[in-house]
Amino acid sequence: MSRLLPFIGFMLLAGLFGFGIWWNTQHDPNAIPTPLLNKPAPAFDLPKLYEPTQTVSKADLLGKPYLLNVFASWCIECGVEHPVLEAEGPTLGVQLVGYNYKDVPADAKRWLAQHGSPYAVVIADEPGHTAIDFGVYGAPESFLIDAQGVIRYKHIGPLTPEVVAKELKPAIAALRKEKP
Amino acid sequence: MTPELGQLALILALLLALAQGVLPLIGAWRGNRALMAVARPAATGQAVFVAIAFGILVWAFLRFDFSVQYVADNSNLELPWYYRIAAVWGAHEGSLLLWILILNVWTVALAAFSQKLPEVFASRVLAVMGLVAVGFLAFIIFTSNPFGRLLPMPGDGADLNPVLQDPGMTFHPPMLYMGYVGFSVAFAFSIAALLGGELEQAWVRWARPWTNVAWAFLTCGIVAGSWWAYAELGWGGWWFWDPVENASFMPWLVGLALIHAQAITEKRGSLRAWTILLSIFAFSLSLLGTFLVRSGVLTSVHAFASDPRRGVFILAFLTIIVGGSLLLYALRAPKVAAGKPFNLLSRETAMLIGNLMFAVAAAMVLLGTLFPLIGDALHMGRISVGPPYFGFLFPLLMLPVVLLLPFGPFLRWGKGDAGMLKSMLLRVTIAALACAIVAAFFVDGHMKAIVGVAAAVWIGVGVLLYAYKRWREVPSGRRYPAEMAGMLLAHFGVAVFVVGVLLSESLSVTSDVRMAPGQTQHIGSYDFRFDGAHRTTGPNWRADQGVVTVTRDGKDIAVMHPQKRTYPRGQVQTESAVDAGITRDLYVALGEPMDAGNIAGAWSLRLYYKPFVRWIWAGGLLMMLGGFVCAADKRFRLKRTVTRAEPAIETRLQETRA
């Protein structure tokens, strides 16, 4: 029997590895759980990209759920994400708020003119200070914020049609269900 | 030389590996000499085709064939030729190809040097090597083809990860793989022995030099990796307990245990089952290392592209090879304890304790490395244990090893001499205490440093005393056979290593400072003067280069040039400046400019004074040298074919040598 112990031990280990592979296919190993999930979004008050004299604050956006999408003209992955937002944006049923992150306003405007803007409103965070409150790692990132100003869903990296269908839309549907 | 030919060569190599893995086994089972004779030519043919495939990939890199996806991903027009060759093993597919090439080098060497082995045994050994090659060739062909095309062909490629663009990194992987793959020889010997049921002491003697050489290469690879981490990562550390480092450290520990267990089995005939088990473990842990790095089960800084399909493949392969051999072990391992009995006070006991400590340490490292995975499985979340866990447990486990090490050689096989041991204990204790007291004055009472000096003297004096004893008692010419010299070198290396680790850990001085040009910082007894930074260029990078002049009591010691390099694809890499010395390293890493627009202004700098840090690698290199010297012993060379009919003579011969 004792001669079988190494074999049994190894098989347990192999089982653990099998589990590890399965787990990694189920979970994105790069997913970083945001501590802000299901917490109120940080307060912000940022100038509009097109009318820098006017600002948009968190309070202005309360009352309706919206998707805050962090983007920048320097961000190559945002170019990948952009057509998805253009195509899926109108079908989401929530307002899209563009969050222009650490960008030169002129570059951002040119970029949006070139690719089209799926956003209802675009706010600009040129120094990137507010992004720190949101825990933004880089662009693109997306936050789904409900009518009470609570972050309900977060995605790091470009939104793909798959992510929109499997994660974002169910999250939006869940918001609707809550509201009578 | 089109890349498709490379792929074709790999497919042919796979077919030959299948022939090498299957036919000789059938031959050995049926007593069919024609089938057994397939092993050598098939192994040679396989090696030729793998070498062709490898050569084609090297060629594709040298002539910038960006139509090959792997070449386009890992090199560009600006990359110097030597790093383009190193780029061959800079990522997943190519490093697998290197793995296979090295496996073939070992197999061909084995085929050449095993002419005098009994035919049945040699063909089983070569067949096992063939089966291992089948797994890896299938893995590369089905999941990780390095010759895949990229169409349309880009005008220029991406880049070799700048972290890898360092001399230390160019030969770190080949050395490491020489070690990993080298354990396959001891593994193949064990499996062949289990299959044939011939658990003679003789096969252990044949396997010993192979294990020693493999272990020495692995040591060299780990030392190179550690040196690279020190010089390149900019944190002045030399070991991080990173999963990938651990993956190379586990087979090293088990290989160390194996070397000693093989010595016992060869000389005394005892511990046969344990030796077999260790040789299975040593190679299994090498495979496991590959699995952990490639499968993405653990995400680590070094982990190359991970892909669940690859993970599943390696897991299946691992289960067949390791599970199969452990099952074979369970069925066929020797049932009765064989060999000569030994007393509690004997060399066997001392070596067994060491063996046990190495095995437990390897298990401890395995547990720590897999902790995040276990955490996931038990729904505790992804937790890493990290350096506090390893840093506490590893020295604790190695304490008995350090304490026992000087006595091992003095103890006789079977029954040790207590009287001699006492006088020896007295001498090393006095030496260690005396040196510790002297050291205490030099190190400002740092306990860790004092312990380090005492431990190193304890081991070093023990080794020297034994060398002196041989000198006095044994006639010249027979005093230090290679096996003995290797042992002394390696054990002395442990002393050098221990003092290096403990002194550098306890006495290092680190300073994170902001320095304007002309400012001076005093560290240790050295003055570091920052003379500003400027732009410079290399073959494929631009850099901000700082100039730091080091003086001591007004005398110039060194002018150092730490860099912050920017590579063509925008990756930034620090290049620390090191002024090496026997008793201390001075180490400067360039941080960030205080004002991003003005590189001529003030910078943040990390300055280190690291005493005796070089002794860490010197100790490692001595251990490596010991392994190689040991393997060169004439005793291990086959003079004649030993058959099962003459074990009695064998044993008698060994006794006269022991």
Notes on the structure:
The complex is a heterodimer of chains A (180) and B (658). Chain A has 180 residues and is α/β, with parallel strands linked by helices. Chain A is 43% helix and 19% strand. Chain A has helices spanning 5-26, 58-61, 76-92, 105-115, 129-134, 161-178, and strands at residues 45-47, 55-57, 66-71, 95-101, 121-125, 141-145, 151-156. In chain A, the strands form two sheets. A five-stranded mixed beta sheet of chain A has the order 5-4-3-6-7. In chain A, strand 3 (66-71), helix 3 (76-92) and strand 4 (95-101) form a beta-alpha-beta unit. The longest helix of chain A has 22 residues, at 5-26. Chain A is elongated. Chain A starts with a helix and ends with a helix. By secondary structure, chain B is of the alpha+beta class. In chain B, 62% of the residues lie in helices and 11% in strands. In chain B, a hairpin with a 4-residue loop joins strand 8 (577-579) and strand 9. In chain B, helix 6 crosses helix 8 and helix 17 (482-507) runs antiparallel to helix 18. Chain B is globular and about 80 Å long. Chain A binds chain B through residues 3-4, 6-7, 10-11, 13-14, 16-21, 23-25, 29, and chain B through 273, 277, 280-281, 284, 291, 295-299, 306, 308, 311-312, 315, 318-319, 322-323, 326-327, 329-331, 333, 370, 373-374, 376-377.
